[in-house]
Amino acid sequence: MRKKLLMVIPNLGLGGAQRVFHDHSVELSKYYGITEAVFNLDLENLYPSGNPLESLAVVGGGGPVRKVANFFKRVSQLKQLKKRLKTDICISHLEGADYVNLLSKGQEKIILLIHGSKSHDRNISGPTGWLRKSVLMPLLYKRADRIVCVSRDIIPEMVEDYGVERSKLSAINNSFEVESVWEKAQEPLPPSMQSVYDAAPVLVTSGRLATQKNQQPLLDIFAGLLHKQIAKLVFIGDGELRNQLVAHARHLGLRVYEAWADEPLTTESDVYFVGLQHNPFQFIRPATAFVFPSAWEGFPLALGEAMTCGVPVVSTDCPTGPREMLAPQSEIPTHPIKTAEWAAYGVLMPMLTDAATAATDQQTWIQTLQALLQDESRRKQLGEAARRRSDDFTHAVTFQRWRKLIDEVLAE
């Protein structure tokens, strides 16, 4: 009899955690009986796995009293689902699911998967953020049988900030469909977009247009770079900051193309917002470099996929993920870096979140990008190194470690 594994996430829809959830469901179903569970089906399942999907049928929203009532209803519903399925082990993705998983605990084992830094997440703020960081996580997380972090650099904060026992913690990186990404990356660009790439060196970035991804300073950097040499900047993705970023680009005097504006695509623009793409890798592989300005991360899929495409990558040394991916033999610096660090598998750069040093940090980025764009040999070396490094993040490597961990927990 295969052991019964229940996987829980608050919602479906578009997001890095949802993609990871899908990958786990597909890969772990090779060894265990998988059932997926979500709080409700308000959002479309954009990453269907083919495994059974259960909804707790509890909506979100409402005032504080309604939210508390819904929370405990979810706990009750998940507890019943675990009993009905005779669950052996329950793995939760994202913090909201973690709380519900822990409070509904019965005889089953529990593993939490931490997708990103908690201590550096600027979305965890205000009174609710204080409650989560100071009460809920320290009180509840220690009840888990195991906690898996997607980056090694999340482990210290779980110990020091939330009181989790070190023995319960392990790091298993996110994985990527390396062969599939590489295959899709070979698809040629549409002729009109290829003309843009032929017109000048292209910097490309990919990700949700959101606070975490911190793309606005990248526009300032790019505007400064244009004073030194011609280039293009391509944004792949969409999000709540779309209008703000477009407006900022125009404020800087940059010529902007917006895919959603139904305007002709020409080589005359400086910045190209191409929106969500079915195959983003065809835009990344032919780029001159991939730039990644995030304020915080977990173990970023977009950065790993760019490495898989064999493109030189330039990333903030943000918590957490990029340092582990680009300079795996190095330790977390005691102070944020203020100069470019040319690492084994890419370039680590100063963060772009400190207003006091913003001008200096942006100037460092401009100088580094200019140096990279003018050094074809170095770009080739970094791109090839990044491609090799991506082989460490295959599904085969990652899920061998997951299977070992799950079997250990089940045997306890």
From TrEMBL:
Residues 199-388 form the Glycosyl transferase family domain. Residues 15-177 form the Glycosyltransferase subfamily 4-like N-terminal domain. Signal peptide: none annotated. PANTHER family: GLYCOSYLTRANSFERASE. This is Glycosyltransferase.
